[in-house]
Write a structure and sequence with these properties.
single chain
């Protein structure tokens, strides 16, 4: 019968204590997983629209550091950009995060949901501005959006925790009539997007409906004079960098503060991520929480390994007496650290997967359990346990066989 490795025997000779050891590491892993999940959900949820934009280049106001801000640029810039060589098409996207309010019009006042703010996106139904199957011009659903007052709702709007399966906006079903900012609307379709840290839900309307409901009653002058985003698609074979530079020259007015900036899709997404990480307390809070999870795991693992070394100090002294070197004994302790890291991570990952599913269903935030994030957190767990093991080695190196006996 093969003798088990010394590190494994040291940890598992008392099964109850070993289970407690693993529970401690699992707790630290779950804590880091949850904090990392919320941090990435912050970034993923607030860049969902950027990921859905079907464009090679994006026109946006330089003052609009986040999509939730209300900073627009003159629509005439779209005509200038359309004339640049290499540009195939340019289209406007309208966004409203402030004055869009969805009101439940249930005839029974006692059953009405409270009026809530909702994000509204206005697009040309034939322009295929967002990467949503329903907006494909070949889809029959696209035709329903052409009607004035027709609205599509997000099926992944934030859910009501008191009523499973229903959004906080109340019933959202095709065929229902409601009010958007005091104007009558009809729900004619649905799509899947999801909520984020600033928005509980989203509506998509045609550009005509958007201007009629959310600009004409409030804007001075032409309701279409200002555009929130411009989507630029390039001709096949065009060099994106060259066309981008040409567009920037075309819209450059020579003023100190230009009114439009040209970004690639990746640059636009990264700017949103940078804003949330560096300019809001939320990014710092989740980063700090993840660091605290690492520290908690470090302390737990150190207590486990240092206690294990102390409990077996006489055995380690015996090994030293018969010729084992400090390096060989250090490898035993580091093996124990690796065992704790691997087993604790496996259990922690399983628990975290279930926690992600629960939290996503309750919050509507995209807590994505991806391979790259698992690999990153596994590396952090191994580093945490090995660092604890190195600190625990101090007591082992100081052990003198003469003192032990």
């Amino acid at each position: 019968m093969r003798t088990p490795p010394l590190a494994w025997a040291n940890l598992t000779h008392d099964r109850v204590r070993f289970a407690l050891f693993i529970a401690g590491i699992t707790f630290a892993v779950v804590l880091m997983f949850v904090q990392l999940g919320f941090r990435n959900a912050l970034l993923d949820s607030n860049t969902q629209i950027q990921e859905k934009l079907r464009a090679d280049l994006i026109l946006v106001s330089p003052s609009r550091q986040a999509i939730a801000m209300r900073e627009a640029f003159p629509r005439r810039r779209l005509s200038q950009v359309a004339a640049v060589p290499g540009v195939e098409s340019v289209q406007a996207v309208y966004l409203e995060n402030i004055i869009g309010y969805l009101r439940d019009t249930n005839p029974d006042p006692a059953k009405r949901e409270p009026t809530r703010a909702v994000r509204v996106i206005g697009v040309d139904p034939e322009g295929y501005a967002l990467d949503l199957p329903q907006l494909d011009p070949k889809s029959p659903e696209t035709q329903t959006l052409q009607r004035l007052g027709s609205v599509w709702y997000d099926r992944l709007s934030k859910s009501d925790p008191t009523r499973p399966g229903q959004s906080i906006y109340g019933p959202l079903e095709i065929g229902l009539t409601s009010e958007l900012s005091g104007q009558n609307i009809e729900l004619t379709g649905g799509f899947d997007l999801g909520s984020d840290f600033t928005t509980d839900g989203t509506l998509i309307v045609s550009d005509r409906t958007f201007l009629r409901l959310l600009r004409e009653p409030y804007a001075f002058g032409s309701p279409s004079a200002q555009v929130d985003l411009g989507l630029v698609r390039l001709k096949p074979g065009s060099d994106p960098d060259q066309v981008k530079a040409a567009i920037q020259r075309a819209v450059d007015t020579g003023e100190r503060d230009p009114d439009v900036e040209v970004l690639t899709k990746a640059e636009y997404r990264d700017r949103e991520r940078t804003f949330w990480l560096n300019n809001t307390p939320i990014g710092f809070a989740f980063g700090f929480g993840m660091a605290m999870g690492f520290v908690v795991g470090l302390v737990i693992c150190y207590q486990i390994l240092s206690g294990n070394v102390s409990d077996h100090l006489s055995e380690y002294g015996t090994l030293k007496a018969i010729g084992y070197t400090n390096a060989q004994l250090a490898w035993v302790v580091l093996q124990e650290a690796l065992i704790l890291a691997v087993v604790g991570f496996v259990f922690g990952a399983v628990v975290s997967y279930g926690a992600y599913a629960l939290l996503e269903s309750q919050t509507g935030l995209p807590l994505r359990f991806t391979l790259d994030r698992c690999v990153w957190l596994f590396a952090a767990t191994v580093f945490m346990c090995c660092l604890s093991g190195l600190v625990a080695l101090i007591a082992l190196f100081r052990a003198d066989p003469a003192d032990v006996f």
